[in-house]
DNA sequence: AACGGTTCCAACCGCTCGATC
DNA sequence: GGATCGAGCGGTTGGAACCGT
């Protein structure tokens, strides 16, 4: 048996709020507050609305401190930074933006900011066609030398150096997207490879660059992308290709692509790591290595 | 002007979590 | 300890507004 509905859906009004309803809710809340019970509020206020609907209307629209209108560039950067750090924790992100609601931030991200980011207008440097991509061979060697897919000390990961940050004109706050976009280039759009990384399962590194959601979520430990030889590598998704697809689309790769195209995948398979993929244990970590390595 | 496609955002849905009994 | 409930959250949807042809 499911849980009881919060209201009698047949007898509540749905859809857009009228100015009269807005005024009723606003004046009631200004006088009485929520009383700690949104469910009972509509009855008390004389509204034929669900309590949840009242709450949402108040929090997202009627609150006096709500900021309406366009986002500033500074807000854009804050959202980008926090999204990288936390993932889609919209309420947490919104809490850092006075006057903005989680719904606002979420809508803004989904409709504008993500695209703006892809177009190269926010906190990153986009590669030109002839820019040099990092060497996978070097990555592999470095990975092996660090032995980071062994059961090592979780705190042994090196931090991204200040030099590495400054090299690409990024700061530590926007590092995640900066690096991802560092890799984002027209030359890598056409072939996508999902890579098995089963040994990652035994290697829960607490990489300071990995977002909280990446560490905690079943889907988002994939949000890092490494690139070599015109290929994009994604960690395995425990059979969940949709998650991988979403990650790719989030980062601007066009759909359809060759995630499930076995022919292309195999053709490309040997190009970047003939010995297999155990080296690509932690893609969030791989994110930063090219820059560290290039400094060596 | 009319139409179709796209964008944007308010609102809803369903889930999780914590509090309470 | 389990059931129930409300609050809060993220994902999704519907439709109005906008834009291009």
UniProtKB/TrEMBL annotation:
Q: Which InterPro entries match?
A: Homeodomain-like_sf, Myb_dom, SANT/Myb
Q: Name one Pfam family in it.
A: Myb_DNA-binding
| Keyword Nucleus in annotation | yes
The residues covered by the Myb-like domain are 9-62, 63-113
The membrane spanning regions, by residue number, are none
Q: Which residues form the signal peptide?
A: none
State the protein's name.
Uncharacterized protein
């Amino acid at each position: 048996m499911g849980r009881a509905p919060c209201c009698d859906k047949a007898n509540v009004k749905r859809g857009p709020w009228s100015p009269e309803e807005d005024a009723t809710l606003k004046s009631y809340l200004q006088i009485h507050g929520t009383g700690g019970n949104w469910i009972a509020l509509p009855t008390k206020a004389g509204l034929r609305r669900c309590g949840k609907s009242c709450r949402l209307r108040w929090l997202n629209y009627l609150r006096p401190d709500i900021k309406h209108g366009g986002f500033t560039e500074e807000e854009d950067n804050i959202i980008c930074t926090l999204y990288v750090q936390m993932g889609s924790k919209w309420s947490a992100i919104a809490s850092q933006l006075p006057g903005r609601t989680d719904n606002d931030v979420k809508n803004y991200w989904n409709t504008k900011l993500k695209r703006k980011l892809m177009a190269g207008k926010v906190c990153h440097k986009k590669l030109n066609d002839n820019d040099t991509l990092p060497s996978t061979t070097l990555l592999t060697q470095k990975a092996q030398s660090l032995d980071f897919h062994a059961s090592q000390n979780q705190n042994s990961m090196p931090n991204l150096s200040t030099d590495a940050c400054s090299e690409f004109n990024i700061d530590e706050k926007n590092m995640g997207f900066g690096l991802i976009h560092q890799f984002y280039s027209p030359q890598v759009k056409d072939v996508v490879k999902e890579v098995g990384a089963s040994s990652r399962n035994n290697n829960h590194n607490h990489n300071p660059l990995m977002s909280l959601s990446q560490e905690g979520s079943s889907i988002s430990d994939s949000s890092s992308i490494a690139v070599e030889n015109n290929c994009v590598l994604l960690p395995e998704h425990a059979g969940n290709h949709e998650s991988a697809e979403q990650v790719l689309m989030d980062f601007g790769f066009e759909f359809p692509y060759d995630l499930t195209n076995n022919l292309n995948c195999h053709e490309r398979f040997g190009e970047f790591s003939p010995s297999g993929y155990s080296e690509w244990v932690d893609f969030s970590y791989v994110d930063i290595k090219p820059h560290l390595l290039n400094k060596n």
